[in-house]
């Protein structure tokens, strides 16, 4: 996975950094699903949508105890910081 593939073009063009927070659920297989944007800063660069795409494509959770099965749940909050490198 190359995170640069998810960086919003508008942010790259402006050499802007930012962050977003999303709230998500997960299924019994550990796949992150149903994310919604809680916040993004600065607005207008697409950081929230980029985080949604990243979570859709690569978001996973694991059971806290590897000896127990993972059950579906909700309440996962993820803050992601985006930086043009």
Description:
- The chain has 85 residues and is of the alpha+beta class.
- The protein has a domain at 19-77.
- It is 21% helix and 34% strand.
- The protein has helices spanning 9-14, 47-58, and strands at residues 18-26, 32-41, 73-82.
- Strands 2-1-3 form a three-stranded antiparallel sheet, covered by helices on one side.
- The longest helix has 12 residues, at 47-58.
- The relative contact order is 0.32.
Features:
85 residues, alpha+beta, three-stranded antiparallel sheet, 2 helices, Ferric siderophore transport system, periplasmic binding protein TonB, TonB_C
Secondary structure layout plus pairing:
Blueprint (H helix, E strand, L loop, with lengths): L8 H6 L3 E9 L5 E10 L5 H12 L14 E10 L3
